[in-house]
Amino acid sequence: QVCAQLCRRPCYCPWVPPRCPRGSPLVLDGCGCCKICARRLGEPCDFLHVCDQSQGLVCDYSSAPAGTGGTCNFEDDEEGCEVNGRIYREGQVFQPSCKIQCHCLDGGFNCIPLCQEDVRLPSPDCPYPRRVEIPGKCCPEWVCEAQDRHLLRDARAAAGAVSPQPPSPCPEWGTEWSACSATCGLGFATRVSNQNRYCRLETQRRLCMARPCPALPAAFPA
Q1: pTM of the entire structure?
Q2: By three-state DSSP, how is residue 192 classified?
Q3: What average pLDDT does this structure show over 38-59?
Q4: CATH code, residues 1-77
């Protein structure tokens, strides 16, 4: 009955097919008559304006008032994951932000950072490296300010000069302590931090012990 009301025979379609946005393929409408752009996830749909079935989408009328169109959504029996109110299908790779990329898998999602978490240690040409956000760029970058180089040059020029005092205030920055170098007994953990007198990035070490080592059998002396 719906098909008889909405579908006209013979078909009358425009000569030139519509230009679809990226990710929206050309498909036949619900009457199987004219080529239209498939509706994507979250877009409105109805009998004529069909969803992109290649992406596993169906027209969901569950939350729409009676007699109105629905919204393109994944089928209920298909596993997916929800991030920030948006549903992604099983196996889909997506980016909630420019800094991370996630993979929907088994109803959950795994994410990896896209920005390098490298650490820049002080050097003669850059005694006070600082990581800052650059306008127009997603990932922060290491920069060296000109005044830092002037401080180093002035300190070297002065005979018997002490190390320059850190700029005030000095924002604390450091990495997490690494895992213990030994699985049992005494080992050491490392980190990079500027929490020192001169607010300079340096590698720091401390003793650690994950657990005591088991005692050797009497037949095998140490």
Answers
A1: 0.35
A2: strand
A3: 89
A4: 4.10.40.20
